[in-house]
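User: Good morning. I'm curious how glutamine would be positioned relative to this chain. Could you predict the structure with it bound?
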Amino acid sequence: MNRRFQSLLDIQKTKISCVDLVEFYLGQIQAQNASLNAFIEVWEKEARIRAKEIDEKIKKDTAGKLAGMVIGLKDNLLVKNQAASNSSKILSGFTSPYTASAIQKLLDEDAILIGRLNNDEFAMGSSNETSFYGPVKNAIDLERVPGGSSGGSAVAVQAEMCTAALGTDTGGSVRQPAAFTGTIGLKPSYGRISRYGVMSYASSFDQIGPISYSISDAAILLEVMSGKDPKDATSSSKKVEAYSALKPNEPKRIAYIEPEGLDDEVSKAYTYQIEKISASKHQLERISIDFADALVPTYYVLTTAEASSNLSRYAGMIYGHQSKKQNSLDEMIMQSRNEGFGPEVKRRIMTGTFILSEEHFEAYYTKALLVRRKIKNRLNEIFENFDAILSPTAPTVPFKLNEKKQDPIAMYLADQFTVMASLGGVCAISIPMKNITGKLPLGLQITCNSFCEKSLLNLANELV
Ligand code: GLN
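Assistant: Good morning! Here's the predicted structure, ligand included:
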């Protein structure tokens, strides 16, 4: 696909005004969104006003480092006085009273926000088919899914309707849609970016992550958003490095996994990629992940448990959808939830409630925590010997709409390579992987240890 701009640096080089830039993106949205369904709401008026203000700052030489970056936001991120619904009916009519800390940091550096983007309802899904607003379509083939849950964010970047977008990644929701759309998706280490103002799904996993068309944009967005936030006790006070100062790499020790059961196109592309890297200066070694079968089950036990607790706040009482059936308080709450949540969200809440119930807690929740610890220990061992781990981002090509919708297990397996980094709290990125036998976009995943984002980005910049 032809693109007008490759990155923020490219935009800044052309010296296009922010006013013209916003008009360009609004035109792109106007032309494509009806068929792609990526934007739920476009903030035309606000974006135009802000573009003028930032052009003034540029003239006076007082503009921040994101001047010229036009950003779309996943619909689970909060901006003061704007609606946000997590693509769910249950949040219809909700307007946020405050702005997420990470987004405030983007605004402080003069980014322009252009609207909110469709996602799987409550960020639960891998195909963007569970949204209350209908599915997002992959711009390369309208019959295919863009991945999920940040499908709208990925397609907005893929179809150049904004410079970059924010998604959230709990188990792969930034990386897998990036792989399916030929974009770049970064999941930072747990705690790198504040979660204040992110609607919670599974709080011990959730992280904001940028989706972009260039590594330099991913790096600068990470640099701006990272850091300790007093409003999020799980945010890290580890020093924020100059991620955007990308450097050539020293030779690295890189591990790769060789999974079975990949789609033929993925398998061929991955083999080609591994051969190419093994011919480079880096030292490449195959490893096996002995706990591979435990990854997806452990992830789903823990995330459904956390989700059932987090989503209990949506009761039709303080905000969002309230049922008209009001014979009793219990009935009102029950019906508001029944009418407001879609089937996948209900499935997760019920599974999580079962897992957390007194009779089953030990067998599922406690056990999954132990397995998570073992996974983390094994990752620590691997990172004692290697700087990075390579794998495909997803086992398949972007699949057809409705192909996996009725089969939750098949859908959950779409995350089999991404959940490891999420369980371990480490950082990972998906970069486009050359498809040597077909045309559909594919992703290569690079995983590095916690807070090694700098070397992750430098390596990604070399391999992209
Ligand atoms: N597809 C995974 C899930 O449904 C990941 C979602 C995410 O990262 N938000 O839980």
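The domain at 1-464 is CATH 3.90.1300.10 (Amidase signature (AS) enzymes). The first helix runs from residue 8 to 14.
Let me know if you'd like a different ligand tried.
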